Amino acid sequence: MAAPWEDVLRDTPAIREAAAVAVDAALLEGVLMRTEGEPNASDVVNFAPFTLLPSVVPQALFEQAYAVQQDFNLLVDAISQNKEFLERTLASTIKVDDFTARLFRIHMQVLEEGLAQSVFLGINRSDYMFDCGVDGTTALKQIEINTIAASFGGLTSRTVPVHQRVLKVLGKFKEASKLLPNNPSKGLALGIAKAWELYGSPSAVVMFLVEKVQRNIFDQRCVENELWNRNIRVIRRRFRDVFEKGSLGEGRRLYMDGQEVAVVYYREGYVPKNYDQQNWEARLLLERSRAVKCPDIATQLAGTKKVQQELSRPGTLESLLPGRAEAVARIRATFTGLYSLDMGAEGDKIAAMAIADPDRFVLKPQREGGGNNLYGEELRQVLEKIRDSPERTSYILMDKIKPQPALNYLLRAHSPLQVSECISELGIFGVYVRQDKGMVMNRAAGHLLRTKAVEHADGGVAAGVAVLDTPYVV
Ligand code: ADP
Ligand code: MG
């Protein structure tokens, strides 16, 4: 679908003027990131990369993505409570993938001891692309669902006024008024606040567990601020702090520096490099505690790519969500082809199919954070090397989604202004709270649009490939 500003895309003076306004507006609105050179200081900061113009998103697909979010919340929550499903699904993966295996061991250990936690908080983001068929129709297809440390719910709210300003500078006043308000961090904080309240100790704090490198701190501060606005105390700590100063008291209540912790919100712990032996011990301590973990370790496992692939098998969704045929249908409609590479005849056939036609597929390991997937010739070479080895079971295979590119300008600090062919990925934030067996909150909390140049197969905003965007819904 053509954007209503195609006429100005090649008007260099107008674009230059708009870009200068855009960058200053981004700084004013707080579309911020710390610099690569000084990732842990806020003395000098940059604007977070963003598109000069909003990207067109078809209304039907936008609404479909919102409509299925509560179903995905229910699904993730159901998986997290289904020990047998996780055990069966991850059995082959944990034999070859050490990271997933370690998470899984903690999961089993915690279940064996018995859960001290009775309030559960899920914050996820389901990501999609708009697949373009040969007949030109577009379909909403899920890339993945992130069940831990899903980011940009804060910064994404701040691109809306920036893009409004840009459109006005380009004379597109009517279009500027059509950009939808969006503030996921409010919804995320609402979930955290609900979990904190149900935990039931008014003096307890919310602990953000954060990484060593904190370039994206402003995104997290947006959520923090919403909590402070509700008079909830927030502390920021690392795994190392938990190892050194964390302890469990009566009823396995979690204490940090003498303060009781009601909710642990992970913006950390999703990749192997986040862990050394002490950090694994800290993770175990947190999981054993009564504190509400967002996510608990079972919910983190529910977000693995192996689980995603198993969900696409006929009958799996039905067994996880019994009596919810409509939810199952809405979820299934967003799936593209997903294939298991487990050892055996089925996996052999899939490996051969991918090797014969690598451009049709994406090969994915059990990793998060962008830049890990394999495409094209590299996919073929890697799969040829491991096709007869159990190592192949650490990957899943997925149909490649092919969106229609559109022209835009990607604004990055210290980068020249040039037009690029771009594709976008839409994420919907989901938030839910469960107390024992009863759902207390289940909602969609807002969206995130990220856009990248078509020549990059992989990678998100933090990986330096995609940039923040605002949907122009038509
Ligand atoms: P990660 O956990 O690393 O974010 P993703 O599954 O989200 O892994 O993949 C990373 C990126 O790779 C996505 O943001 C998207 O740009 C691209 N990608 C992933 N799966 C597909 C697919 N099936 N078709 C096209 N691009 C994909
Ligand atoms: Mg992703």
TrEMBL record:
It comes from the Eukaryota. Pathway: Sulfur metabolism; glutathione biosynthesis; glutathione from L-cysteine and L-glutamate: step 2/2. It comes from Tricholaema leucomelas. Its cofactor is Mg(2+). SUPFAM superfamilies: Glutathione synthetase ATP-binding domain-like, PreATP-grasp domain. ATP binds at residues 144, 305, 364-373, 375, 398-401, 425, 452, 458. This is Glutathione synthetase. Mg(2+) binds at E144, N146, E368. GO terms for cellular component: cytosol. Keywords: ATP-binding, Glutathione biosynthesis, Ligase, Magnesium, Metal-binding, Nucleotide-binding. One of its GO terms (molecular function) is glutathione binding. Its EC number is 6.3.2.3. The gene is Gss.
